[in-house]
From TrEMBL:
UniProt similarity note: Belongs to the AAA ATPase family.
Positions of the UniProt region annotated as Disordered: 137-160, 202-224
The keyword Nucleotide-binding appears for this protein: yes
Organism this protein belongs to: Kwoniella shandongensis
Pfam families linked: AAA, AAA_lid_3, Vps4_C
Domain Spastin/Vps4 C-terminal, chain residue ranges per copy: 147-194
Entry GO terms, CC: cytosol; nucleus; VCP-NPL4-UFD1 AAA ATPase complex
Protein name: Uncharacterized protein
Domain ATPase AAA-type core: 1-74
AAA ATPase AAA+ lid domain residues: 97-136
Record-level Gene Ontology MF annotations: ATP binding; ATP hydrolysis activity; polyubiquitin modification-dependent protein binding
Length: 224
C-alpha cells in the first residue's frame, strides 16, 4: 500500500481542532490500529511519501510501523540526464540539442522541474509550428487574391513543417522561466531530519559491547 502526500492524513495529533472535531486524529488512530494488526502472516507492505517529514506523527515512525526512512535526494547529473531522456523519448529533438549540457547546468532541479522545462520547450515548438502554418496560409490567400484565383483551388506549396522538432532556441527560452521548486533551506531541513531520526534510532557511540553482555553508556558517564 502506497500513501502519497502522507502528511495530509498523518500529521501530529493534537493540532486538529479545526477539522471537524478532530477527524484527522481519528483517521490516524485507525491507521495505527490497522498497522499494529499486521503480522508476518499478512504479506502487506506500507510505504508513504512526503516532502514534510517533520509534520508526521511520531507514533507512525515507531518500530513495527513506518520504521525505515529512505531519504531520496535531488537527482545528480546522471539522473537528470536520464529524466530528460525519459521525458523527451517521444518528442522530436533537433540534432543540435545537447541534453548532457542541459543536465550539467540544472544542478539543484528536481524531476518535476526538469519535466516542466521539457514541456515548456515542447509547447514553444508547437506554438512556433502553428504560427508558421498560419503565416503560410495567409501567404497563399494573398497570392490567390493577387492572381484572381480561388484559394481552395491553389496547390499547397511548401507543405513541410517549418518547425519539425524542438530546437536549442526553444530550450533556451524555456530555461528563462525555469525555477527550482526545492530550495537549499528545504534540503538542509530534510537532511537534518534524516540525521536526527537515524541518530535517535541507533545506539551510536553510547553502546559498548563487553564480555558477558552489553552496557549502555550516556554522555554524563563519559564526562566523569
Amino acid at each position: 500500500m502506497f500513501f502519497d502526500e502522507l502528511d495530509s492524513i498523518a500529521k501530529s495529533r493534537g493540532g486538529s481542532g479545526g477539522d471537524g472535531g478532530g477527524a484527522g486524529d481519528r483517521v490516524l488512530n485507525q491507521i495505527l490500529t490497522e498497522m499494529d494488526g499486521m503480522n508476518a502472516k499478512k504479506n502487506v507492505f506500507i510505504i508513504g511519501a512526503t516532502n514534510r517529514p517533520d509534520q508526521i506523527d511520531s507514533a507512525l515512525l515507531r518500530p513495527g510501523r513506518l520504521d525505515q526512512l529512505i531519504y531520496i535526494p535531488l537527482p545528480d547529473e546522471a539522473s537528470r540526464l536520464s529524466i530528460l531522456q525519459a521525458t523527451l523519448r517521444k518528442s522530436p529533438i533537433a540534432p543540435g540539442v545537447d541534453l548532457n549540457f542541459l543536465a550539467k547546468n540544472t544542478a539543484g532541479f528536481s524531476g518535476a522541474d526538469l519535466t516542466e522545462i521539457c514541456q515548456r520547450a515542447a509547447k514553444l515548438a508547437i506554438r512556433a509550428s502553428i504560427d508558421a502554418d498560419i503565416r503560410k496560409e495567409r501567404d497563399r490567400k494573398d497570392k490567390a487574391e493577387a492572381a484572381g484565383e480561388d484559394v481552395s483551388l491553389m496547390d499547397e506549396e511548401n507543405d513541410e513543417d517549418e518547425v519539425p522538432a524542438i530546437t536549442v532556441e526553444h530550450f533556451e527560452e524555456a530555461m528563462q522561466f525555469a525555477r527550482r521548486s526545492v530550495s537549499d533551506a528545504d534540503i538542509r531541513r530534510y537532511e537534518m531530519f534524516s540525521t536526527t531520526l537515524q541518530q535517535s534510532r541507533s545506539f551510536g557511540n553510547n553502546f559498548k559491547a563487553q564480555e558477558g553482555g552489553a552496557t549502555f553508556q550516556n554522555e554524563a558517564d563519559d564526562d566523569e
